[in-house]
Amino acid sequence: METTVIGPRKTFSLKDIKELWQYRELLYFFTWKDLKVRYKQTTIGILWAILQPFITMVVFTIFFGKLAGLPSDGVPYPIFVYTGLLFWQFFSGALSETSSSLTGNQSIITKVYFPRLILPISSVITKFIDFLVASIILVAMMIYYGYTPYLGGLFIIPLLLLITFMASVGLGLFLSAINVKYRDVRYALPFFIQILLFLTPVIYPASIAGKYSWFLALNPMTGVIQSARAALLGSTPINWFLIGISAIACFIMLLIGIVYFKKVERYFADVI
After folding, report:
1. For residues 91 and 98, what is the distance between their CA atoms, to the nearest angstrom?
2. pLDDT digits over 194-206, tens only?
3. What range defines the domain where residue 181 resides?
């Protein structure tokens, strides 16, 4: 009698992509489950996706825009910081959810086989839905302040979302795989995200760094947020070179995350 062993491959290949497509309904299920669990027994539900960046924008506007007097490239500070917060919270929220996606589904991982890549990816897709909902406030703010986005600028937004997606999934895969064995990640990650916020031009323009702007450029989210403001608000010209650097850096980050994830995937059910 032949015995068939079902398990993950040690390396990523085109077969993994085909497998993800075969399990696409499971990806939809996990995404829908994450949304329902997050907003279960809440009064306003998914509207929290709007309130969180909006309230953060108000606080930043008062303390950094009014009291500290930080510049905003000639753009009203509320709309300036909210544009940055949209992409930043997509990235930081997806990173937090992705890093705990395996440990949060421990009971499923230990009982049945399915492509484990589905869990981190579904967490990022959930945050993408939050991004779309929160964008409603940005549209309202642009109407209020009389900003009309450039048509050419709108076409660049999907590219910026793709770059953010690659950064979130790549780093998230790496952290989620480490978190299976070392639970220190859940304590270190919030601190890391908090520090990274101040190293990303969310509450200030990148130009404020002066001769140290190259240091900010090492952060892939710098190119994303700067380009989003340039595209939507016309605050500065679109820096295609910076977008290219961010895209390459995030793609490399994605590859590293996938390679490491696939390398240790076969141990998840035993260690978790």
Report:
1. 10
2. 999 988 989 998 8
3. 14-28+45-271
